[in-house]
Design a protein that fits this description.
- The protein is α+β, with helices and mostly antiparallel strands and 120 residues long.
- The protein has 2 domains: 1-39; 41-120, no CATH class.
- The protein is 34% helix and 29% strand.
- The protein contains 4 helices and 3 strands.
- It has a 3-stranded antiparallel sheet.
- It is elongated.
Length: 120
């Protein structure tokens, strides 16, 4: 009787290990488990992306971090523009989403003149 229980436990452990290895090496065979990750938010957009007027300059820090002597060297800056939108969730809550994106050529003079007299 004890040998039967040990045999069943070993069979159960082998089946669990086989299922884990199959999921680990072949995740595309189990689309039910990862499908929910890629579903976008189902909220209602109440106000689409609107520029807030805030700008920022960004650069790639990886080039400078690899060589600290490059702090005084000229580098490429990119103008970023902040945008926001309001999305109503399924529960009825209004969520404010904020994103930074690269400015277009048409926006650069507008954002630059808007913030010309401002100090940080």
């Amino acid at each position: 009787m004890v040998n039967v229980f040990i045999g069943l436990w070993l069979l159960l452990i082998i089946l669990i290990a086989a299922a884990f290895l199959a999921y680990y090496f072949f995740p595309a065979a189990f689309p039910v488990f990862w499908r929910h990750r890629h579903v976008p938010n189902q909220g209602v957009i109440k106000r689409d992306w609107v520029a807030t007027g805030r700008i920022d300059f960004a650069t790639s820090i990886t080039k400078v971090a690899s060589n600290p002597e490059d702090y005084d060297q000229p580098t490429e800056f990119k103008l970023l523009v902040e945008e926001r939108r309001i999305v109503e969730s399924l529960a009825g809550n209004e969520n404010l989403e904020v994103q930074w994106r690269l400015a277009t050529l048409r926006e650069e003079p507008v954002e630059g003149h808007r913030n010309n007299g401002l100090t940080s």
